Amino acid sequence: MANRLIQLEDAKVFTISVLSGVLLxxxxxxxxIPANVFASGFTGVAQIISAFxxxxxxxxxxxxxxxxxxxxxxxxGKKFTFFSFVNVASTTLFLEIIPVQGFxxxxxxxxxxxxxxxxxxxxxxxxxGASSGGLDILALLAAKKSDRAIGDYFFMMNAIIxxxxxxxxxxxxxxxxxxxxxxxxxxxxxxxxxxxKLTAMxxxxxxxxxxxxxxxxxxxxxTRMPAKGGYSKEEKEVMMIVITRYELYLLQQVVDxxxxxxxxxxxxxxxxxxxxxxxx
Length: 280
Fold this sequence. Notes:
Elements: H1 2-32, H2 41-50, H3 57-75, H4 78-97, H5 107-127, H6 135-145, H7 150-169, H8 171-191, E1 197-204, H9 207-217, E2 223-228, E3 235-244, H10 248-258, E4 263-268
Helix pairs in contact: 1-4, 1-5, 2-3, 2-7, 3-4, 5-8, 6-7, 7-8, 9-10
């Protein structure tokens, strides 16, 4: 029964990864590429490179993600990386299928609607425990090895894309690229969560089992505190764990699997100081 539920969940995430690829491809071929506006992350990098060599952005996106997928498989997580690569492959496929044809000559409309479609595709994917690959995996891996926030790495990469856009097509196009990135990020924040780091407070009477599961599947340490049910008077524990937003779906899966009756409160974390990684 448990294996059946896992298979159904995996099939759901697989389907979402493919549908997200459709939305991301539509965002590019119907809005961003016709207007010479760049997307964020590796997709924007693929657009930049395709301006200099005779390869389409879709093919370049796939090629750029192959070494990143191998790294993510070894260092980040197999399921997260697998579904992320499914999304990349789907995006590449539909970029080749969907014709590049704009609906409007208004660059603002192209930037906004391209950002909306791309944001929906990426946001839904994050909500279900995957990503659009590329920069997401690199940033997650880098954040595990340093005290910098994931957002810092996104900012640096997207700043490079915006500057390249300005260099290639003029500062006006750079500003529209910035507009697209802003719209997409706001949509992602609305669908998933705007906070890069989150704190989970889990009230449970299966603290040992949960801690073991966290250490196997989530690369974060856990703080345990004694607690007592106000109504039941039952002795319990509160487990506190700080995670990135990429790990939220995985955390919820672990809690549901080990202790479906646990109470979990997720709150935003504006900053941390001290040990964050499990190996600290």
